[in-house]
Amino acid sequence: MRINDQPGFVLHRRQYSESSLLLEVLSRDHGRIGLIARGARGSKSALPALLQPFQQLQLDFMGTGELQRLIRAEPLGAALELRSERSLAGLYCNELMVRLLPRGDACPSLYQRYAGVLETLVDCTAIAWPLRLFERDLLAELGYAADFSEDAEGMAIEAGARYRFEADSGFLKTSGSSGYSGAALLAMSQGSEPAAPQMRELRLLFRELISLHLRGETLRSWSLLAELGR
Asked: Which stretches does DSSP call E strand in 17-149?
């Protein structure tokens, strides 16, 4: 079956044989797909410069199974210019989707959410809050949404309390200084950017939530973003 004029973003690419590229693509109507761009590394091909992250494309492809063949790729507008830490943030979003999204599951709302976070990263003054919101929405799209407004017992989250996360139940109130502040959880529930201490808590919280679905593995982007922070 051939699919024409499908909007998509390249999430990752690597060499495939001497002259081709293997692409991981987020498409609007077909979710994450694997594409082989045959001959894309040839000396006369313009595809290597086009098949880059953060460039929205219009794609034609065909085939069945895990890998399909790229037939055509054209740009949809100009590539987004993400530099320095913004580029790392965008690549982090890409790695999250490659590692967590199953292939072939349509997710048009996530596609729009991803396009939106890339546009936000172009001009934002700090990358932390857009990343936390994207992590929240990605986990929700995958069916792993956490309830940031109520604890595991159905009680409203209290800003002054502290909570730990239990994978099988949700947030449970805890004593002392361990866990995460209710203020940080309410910030995620309300979509309102918190102060720096709560932002640091949320970074650790989402690493915990994401790690639950990585089967003990880590993300390369975590170490790169940590180096940038230092």
From this structure: 20-27, 31-37, 56-62, 67-75
